[in-house]
Design goal:
Elements lengths: L2 E3 L4 E3 L14 E3 L3 E4 L8 E7 L6 E7 L2 E11 L7 E11 L5 E10 L2 E2 L4 E3 L15 E3 L4 H4 L17 E4 L4 E10 L5 E4 L2 E4 L2 E8 L2 E8 L4 E2 L3
Parallel strand pairs: 4-18, 7-19, 11-12
Antiparallel strand pairs: 1-5, 2-3, 5-6, 6-7, 7-8, 8-14, 9-10, 9-13, 9-17, 15-16, 17-18
């Protein structure tokens, strides 16, 4: 599949109630240009899919002017006594240009509801019993999506560094991941074909002056828990 993606304005403007927030907020991703996977328009990015040779999963990819941005997403249960489910995603940016790229966090919404990235506890550290009940953190050592290697744990955009800018040098690639907690009452639906998140997940990442937007139906998100 190859489709052109063009200029647009991406707006998320919904409440945070289902994610444990008390206030309504307007969530906007505004840029001169945004490329949305699967939307046709001339002179824009090209959307395609590649197949993971290890899992057989389809990986969506956006390509523009020597830059390839691809998305992998998985989910897992938060664990006994923990609220909600973890939605985890890794974005890979491949720089085929002759100049460095700047990469920044964009945003994510689940079924129309904006969500905030969690703080990440490194794999070599652990929360104490009092801290373990917090819903705004994720312990990498307990997350099979990362310990199994399904998603990358090399770099993270988390609650602690959302304003950070990372660089990708010419001829190099970068993987960066994010974890959110889905606190909806009916966040997962199961059938004979397996379990998947309900609704649609929409997220974007900023590469230079462009937003690369991926829209993932829940059925396309892989269960990578134990």
């Amino acid at each position: 599949m190859r489709r052109a993606c063009g200029l647009t304005l991406v707006v998320f403007a919904l409440g945070l109630g289902m994610f444990g927030q008390n206030d309504l907020t307007t969530f906007k991703a505004e840029a001169k240009s945004a490329f949305v996977w699967g939307e046709d328009a001339p002179e824009g990015a090209v959307s395609s899919t590649v197949q993971d040779p290890l899992t057989g999963n389809v990986i969506p990819k956006l390509s523009h002017a020597g830059i390839d941005v691809s998305s992998r997403m998985g989910f897992e249960r938060a664990g006994i006594g923990q609220p909600g489910d973890f939605l985890n995603y890794t974005t890979t940016i491949v720089n085929g240009t002759d100049h460095a790229l700047s990469v920044r966090y964009g945003g994510i919404s689940v079924d129309g509801h904006p969500a905030s990235p969690l703080s990440i506890v490194p794999a070599n550290k652990h929360l104490n019993k009092k801290e373990a009940g917090r819903s705004d953190v994720a312990e990498l050592s307990k997350m099979n999506c990362f310990t199994s290697g399904f998603l990358s744990s090399d770099n993270f955009f988390s609650a602690n560094n959302l304003s950070q800018t990372v660089s990708v040098l010419p001829g190099n690639a970068l993987t960066v991941s994010t974890v959110i907690r889905d606190l909806r009452s009916y966040s997962v639906r199961c059938s004979v074909e397996g379990c998947h998140p309900t609704g649609t997940i929409r997220y974007y990442i900023k590469v230079n002056n462009f937003d690369y937007v991926f829209v993932r139906p829940g059925q396309s998100v892989t269960y990578c828990g134990k």
